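Justification of computing resources. Each target in the renewal requires a structure prediction run like the one illustrated here; the chain below, 178 residues long, is used simply to show the kind of job we budget for.
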Amino acid sequence: MKDVGGSSPAPRPERGSVKARTRTRPVRLSPADRKALVLLTRTGSHPAQEVRRARILLELDENDRDRHGPVPTNAAIAGRAGVCVDTIVKVTRAYSEHAGDVQVTIRRKKRLTPPVESVVTGEVEARILALACSQPPEGYDRWSLRLLEKHIVLVDDIPDLDHSTIGKVLKKRNFALT
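Resulting structure tokens:
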């Protein structure tokens, strides 16, 4: 190619090159945190997501005495860890938001509420047990789960429940239909 503009284009950096990364959220691990993360990644059986996040934090650590040169770029770390660059950013953000608490950063956040509210409350359980303890309808010797299901449908203040749900409630309370 012929140089028309008089200046040559700037050389592109190699993929996975090591440059100083922007330090808007620096990761500085204490020796104890670093040791705990190394143990987590190398020993025992741990959830894959925890191990992945621990490896990312170890790569991002600016206090790593064994590293020669600056902290690698997010793209280089993402390539080594086998994740997207966005994951590196999210782990770094979580580390800074939790004030450098490594354990909180790598662990999964516990849900405050279940995804679906349970239909069976303590009051519903009590009503099911009371019905199961009562005399079965005329023509039946004992209650069955499907018979309880049919009668629960007739009661207005108890939600419609499947026979398997009724069985789980009775099993939870060690109640046997005899």
